[in-house]
Structures are given as structure tokens and as C-alpha cells.
Amino acid sequence: MVVCGDDGLAHRLAAELRGVYREQVTLVVPPSGRRVRQPVVGRARAASAALRDMVNAAVNRTGNGDATGGTGGSGGTGRELEATEPTEDVLADAGVERATALALVYDDDETNIRAALTARRLNPRLRLVLRLYNRRLGQHIEALLDQSATLASGGGPGSGSGSTTVLSDADTAAPALAATALVGTSKVVETDGLLLRAVERHPPRPGEVADPGLCTLALLSATSNDPAGADGSEDSGEHGPQLLPDAAAVRAATGRGTVALEQVSYSGPPLPSGRAGVPAFGELFSRRLRWSLAGLAACVVALAVALMVVTGDHPLHATYVTLLDLFSINEPAHNKDTGRQILQLLSGFVGLLLLPVLLAAVLEALGTFRSASALRKPPRGLGGHVVLLGLGKIGTRVLTRLREMDIPVVCVEADPEARGMATARRLRVPVVLGDVTQEGVLEAAKIHRAHSLLALTSVDTTNLEAVLYARSVRSRLRVVLRLYDDDFATAVYRTLRAAHPFALTRSRSVTHLAAPSFAGAMMGRQILGAIPVERRVLLFAAVEVAGHPQLEGKTVGEAFRAGAWRVLALEVPDGGRAGGAGTEGARESRLVWELPDTYVLRGSDRVVLAATRRGLAELLGRRVRQQSPG
Q1: Order of strands across the sheet with 409-413?
Q2: Residue 343 in contact with residue 310, Cβ under 8 Å?
Q3: Where are the alpha helices (H) located in 563-623, listed in sequence order?
Q4: 178, 250, 367, 378: most buried by Cβ count inside 10 Å?
């Protein structure tokens, strides 16, 4: 694997590939004076990899270098090159011609595109992963590079392994930030619009039935004190976690917690709003005008009833005559009795009152439709919502993701021309314009009744100040900070957790959240993500059933191999069914969950499965880069 970049994402991605997937990585970064400081996790893992290299070198000197044992094997090692730009000579020196995958994660889109074109020419079968913010340009570049790889390999579509994947750090970090705001964890996997998370459940009490969620992913260690480590090590002893257990093992496991897979969802009150671009009926007219219209309608009914009593007319005829008097188009009642004349005068007076009310209604309705595209204010009584600070490229993606999940959001932005203002207008999301560091801005966003606070501005000190002020207003508010530097994020997290032990606090850097998605793309398009379970890792992948004898022609129950892989969901056309399994579980999803064990997997099926590293390598016919069990 080759990783080229100029910021913390490159170091984080290299650490992810070495620590989780045990891959050999060559890291290409600018010279020391022109690059950002390496993240703390990247430094720790780099030191760990260097230590394993020293151990392996010592083993080789004793003549045991070809043994299959060892502490780290060849996985997780690599080298680092320094270069100002990823030129053709630099890429060749990094071994692109022999590499399996190349990630170009420079902050500049043009640099990534230029290097990708060069790398595709050097190695047509190379798997490319590019970091681009422009979605439309990314689609065109992806198609262009895939077509170039197909023509260079001399085959039809899909004949070569040289695929191209274009990702945006904003898009890949948005699901994790949204999940953190809702449930307090960023260890999620996104598949076809669904956010899935692994939940640790305590051992059930006697007589209590544990909720398995979508499925049980693992049995935790009986004496586990290591909460979901992320180093990817699989040094599990006899009492370590048991990944992908069968039903018998789950029933026999007493006193052990479980890791269940469940969908991330929001159960709070919805945000009252009409359809996009169409105001609700209550928003057309003000409350005072609605009361005025109701009062006039009551007067018309009263006059019609009085006329019916005085003249003895039929109710419909009495109403008709009242309306004629109301609009002053009836003949004068000078030859009628006194009661009829008084009712005609009163009807005329009510008609005079009706004219300005009708004019006000027309003007208010026109004003409402004209301001339908304007920014909304937080409605009265709003509570249980998410307050989102900053509508830059990250905040805009998170806002879209939250609204796709029908989560009420109130945005705070200081720049009226910010990137996400048009998105907020289109989604009809309330926005408070103002500097978040000024007094009264967070109060206008109803922070005292909010479910959580997402501070996603591009300035770390602004995010920190907003969180500290929000905590002074509501000490148990759930807060999520976006901080650029990993060391600073760790220090802020520890301090806030110590100061507010009963409140949930999360500090995240975008590189920390985006690296797993980039690493999964480098491993292949099948990889959807990875979730750590204590000191081991579970991978989630989308696999075509055709060409895999372990799956094709077998039932879901027969295809399940305990400790190796398990089929979780089946992809079907919109509105389709799968052997009585039911329809898709989400509005925008084409995945069927809770498949019956009797469903037979066909060659045309595409499934989502959870697997260990060794199990997925065996299923996909890859060589495992590790020596320890798992």
C-alpha cells in the first residue's frame, strides 16, 4: 500500500492500514519543515511498527526469519519517503508499479488528480483512492480512470483489478459525527443509507432476556477491562472475545457481555415543519389574523341564526340573505320590520370589518410564500434537537445526514454567505445568524432544551469556547467537538470528562473519522468498514455471491461459519422481497435484514456480511498478513 498526503489524514490512514489490516505501507509526505505534526496515534503505532521491525531483524539474524511465528510478521510495517509533490519519479520510488493500492489524500484536489493520472499510467491494475471534495468532478474522474485501466489491461469492463474510488473527508466523517451526536459513539458502519453501530451489552440478569439487536456480533471477555481497543491486535487468549458466535455459544455463555449490531436512530420529538418549499397551513397566517377570521365567521353564523329566528326562513335561505347583506349586494329592507332592518345594518357593518381582514390575509399569505426560501427561526417550544455550529463543508454534510434521519436541527452560523446556507434554506432548517461566542446566540438556538451540541466550525478555539459556554448553561449536555489536532482533542476530552463526569463528551478530528473509510476503500470496494471488539477487529463487506462456493447455492444458515463470517443482509430491488424475509428496513435502503436461515443464496445475490480478517481473506481468496489467531 502507498499513501501520499500532506496533512494528518495521511498519517492516520497509514496507521489504520498497519494497525487494523496489517498491511505493508509506504508513506509519502512533504519534508519535515512543510508538513503538519504527526497524530499521536500515528506516532504510537509507528513506534510499535519500528519495534516489531527490530524484533523481526533479530529473529532473521538467528536464522529463524522464515518461520511462520513471530510477534508481528510482515504486516503492519513500511517505510516513509519525503517529497514535496507526488511526481512520477517519487511515485516510482514509492513502488507504485508493484503496489496493490495507492491513496492520494492531499488537501489540494488538483494535486490528487494529477498524481492519479500519472499513477494510472505507471500501473493500470493499481487500485486508486482519491480525496476530492467536488462530488461531480469526482464522478467524472472516477469514470475516466476506470476506463483508462480497462483499456490498458486489454479487456472488457471489470477485467482488471484497477478500480478507482473517490472519497471526500467531509462525506466520510459526516455519518460518524451524526452518530456521535445521537448515541455517543463514532464506531459506525454505513450501508445503503443505514447507520449501524456495535453496542456492548452487559450480561443479562437471571430470568432476563437480552436484546440481540440485528444480530450478536461477539461475546466479550469474561474479565474484559479493555473497552473496544482500536489497535487491531488479535492477541486474544483463552478468555478473549469470541467473534461471530453461533446460537449455541450465545446460549451457553453465562456471565459474559455481548456485542450486538443495531441501527442508529433518533427517538426524540420531530421538528414541526411543512413539506420542502410549501409552508404548513398554520404558517400562512399569523395567530392574530386567524383569531380575527374566526371571530368574523362566528358573527356571520350568529347573524344567520338571528335572521332565521326573526323571519322564520329556512337556514340555507337565511344564510344566503345574510351573505348578500354582508357584501352589500342585497336590496334595502326599508319596507321590512324593525328586526330585519337592524340585522341588515349589522351585516353591513360586519362586511366593512371583513374587507381589511381579507386584505391582511392576502398580504400575509404572499409574504409567507415569498419568505419560504428565507431562513427560519427556531420555533417556540422546540426541544430534544441538535444544535449544529458551523455550516462549512463538514457542517453542511452533517446537516444533510441528520435531516436524512429526520432529526431536528438548529444551525448557528456567523457568515450569511456560508457554504451551507443554501442547504439550510432548502431543507427548511432553523438558522441563528450570529457569532457563537457572543452572549445570547446559543440561547436563541434553544441550547437549554437541546439533545446535543455539535461544534463543527473550522476554528478549534471557537468550538471549545462554545462547548464551555454551553456546559455552563446545561452541565449535562452531550457535546461533540471538531478539533484539528489529535493531541489537542485528547487533552480537551480528558479535561471535559474530568470536569463533567456525568455528561457525555466527545472530541473528534475529521482525519480520525475519515481514515477508516479511506482504508476500507484501499482494501477494495467490498469493505464497508471495521469495528473494533476489545483487541480484535470485525470487518463489514459487501460481497457478490457468484464465484464464492462458500455462499452460492447454500442457505443462510449453511453459509454461516462461526468465528469466520456471517451473512447479515441481502440487497434486493426497491420493493422486492427475499424468500419471505420482508421488505427493506429503511425508507431509502434496499437491504433486507433478519434473513431466514432457510433462504438460499443465488449467484445473482449481493450480501452484506460481517467477518474476521482471516475469514474475509479466506472468502475472497486473499493471503492473510498475520500470524496470531483470528
Answers
A1: 431-433, 409-413, 386-389, 452-455, 478-482, 505-508
A2: yes
A3: 613-620
A4: 178
